[in-house]
Each structure stands twice: as structure tokens, then as C-alpha cells.
Amino acid sequence: MSYHIPSDDQIKVALKEVLRKFRTVQSQSKLKELATKELNTKKKKFGVTGSRLRKIAINSDFVKLEIHSREGNPKKLMTKCPVCRSTLKRVKNLTIWGGEVTIEFRCPNCGYWTGKKKRIPTRYIFHLKKKKT
Ligand SMILES: [Zn+2]
Which of 2, 30, 50, 123: disulfide with 68, CB 3.0–4.6 Å? Predict the structure, then answer.
């Protein structure tokens, strides 16, 4: 059996359906399993990678991504977002009293941030974003 590659729109529809049913999905691999189930039909089987699903989820307006992380090497330079591969922006924070500068890196695309102690994503949780009223 061969696998079909779904379009971004097909994936979006499947993601929306999965989150409508489950509200929260506890991991990327679970999301992949559920979304694939949603995409598949009797005649067609679809294949999609977890990182592609995550990227589409980030760029949709109905997914809230929760990132769990562990501490990484503070000396390691991080230029690309580990979540969505966008270029990280360097942000300097001046403290009010001492004038000390702390450097943070932020992702303008998905909201990931890290300080000196690098945050390495270990797990993603996907929530259905509540509609603003
Ligand atoms: Zn990002």
C-alpha cells in the first residue's frame, strides 16, 4: 500500500476535527495518530510527519501549543527556534536597579522563548484555542 501526502488544508481540517473531539491532545505522537486516523479513508491512506503537523498547528488560529521542556547547555548557541525552525530574536532585558542585562531569545512565530539556561522542548501538548467573543 502506498501513502498519500495530504495538503496543508487537508491537515488543517483533520487537526480541527481532532481538537473539536478531544479538546486537548497530550503529545505530538498522539496528535499524529489521531490526525492520520482522521485523514484516512477506506481507499486512501495518508502519511504525515509529526513536525509537519506541529508547524501547521502553530500557524493555525485554533491551536494553542503548550511546550514542556528540560534545561539544555547554557553555552550552546541557539539561533533557530526548536519548535518551528524560525529565526530567534534576541531580546535584552535591563533590570531596574542594577542595570544588569539578561539576554533572552524569543520566537516571533510560535511564542517559544529561552533564557541563558536553554529550554529544550521535550513534549508538546495541543489545546483547542477558545474563540474570542
Ligand atoms: Zn518558533
Answer: 123
Indicate the pTM of the whole model. 0.85
In terms of DSSP H, where are the helices of 25-75? 28-39, 50-58
Report how far ligand 1's centroid is from the alpha carbon of 41 (Å). Answer: 32
Residue 101's DSSP bridge partners are: 94
Span from the CA of 2 to the centroid of ligand 1 (angstroms): 32
What confidence tens digit (pLDDT) does each residue in 72-126 have? 988 888 899 999 999 999 888 777 677 777 788 999 999 899 988 899 999 999 9
Q: How far apart are CA 96 and CA 90, in angstroms?
A: 19
What are the domain boundaries of the chain?
3-128
As a whole number of angstroms, the distance between CA 92 and CA 116 comes to 12
